[in-house]
Amino acid sequence: MPKKLLSAAKSHQGDPWQARSGIHAVGGPVRGRVNLEPIRHQSWEIINAILMDNDPEGSENRNQLRRCLNKNRGNPERALLMHLMSMPGRSAPAVID
């Protein structure tokens, strides 16, 4: 493994998805990497709006979102994507690793 990739993998040992994607969870982007903070912020706003709803008909949707959040701790954008893709009439994304 090239030295640059090895150091990135070591710095994100707790989260292999981050190591593969080259994403920094805190702060701005590292040279050549994507800053997901704006997307994470928007994802949390959407997630909070869904979870704050108290319509009894949406309780199963909120429970599904909570399950997605538990499976994707630290990645609200991925949790929201998985939740949306699990909705009726949707298919799973082609590639999610």
Overall residue-averaged pLDDT value: 74
Helix-and-strand structural type:
mainly alpha
The proportion of strand residues reads under 5%
Helix-strand pattern: HHHHH
Total beta strands? 0
Spatial shape: globular
Tell me the span between the first and last alpha carbons: 20 Å
Main sheet: strands, sense, barrel:
none
Helical content class: 55-70%
Total count of helical runs of at least 4 residues? 5
Q: Measured on Cα atoms, how large is the radius of gyration? A: 16 Å
Question: What does the model show?
Answer:
The protein has helices at 3-11, 16-21, 37-52, 59-71, 76-85. It is mostly helical. The longest helix has 16 residues, at 37-52. It is globular, with a radius of gyration of 16 Å.
Short description:
The chain is mostly helical and 97 residues long. 56% of the residues lie in helices and 0% in strands. The chain has helices at residues 3-11, 16-21, 37-52, 59-71, 76-85.
